[in-house]
Amino acid sequence: MAVMDIQVSARRSGTVSVSEGVAAAHRVIAAAGLKSVLHPMGTCVEGDPARLYRLAAEIHEVLIGMRFERIAINIKVDHRLDREQSMDDKLKRVGDLLAGPAA
To answer: Is-contact 91 44, C-beta < 8 A?
Structure first.
């Protein structure tokens, strides 16, 4: 399993808001049935790496269909090959370190 952080910035003339594009991206993610977490600067999604890359392409196509004039999509993919690691696992590890004594 991999974790992808995706940031969608789709714009139209006359506005700097990107929330319409973000909402459209979340509809695509929900339809894919993948676990996701929205955060103020993007969205984390977990799944098979190939599926995550296809998901980014699907989001791009939806935004094109919505006639945005400028579309920017930034993705980061963390694919750990030595063992399975979910978004929850990553957060738990940092939480455990924060709960322990400072180094």
So the answer is: no
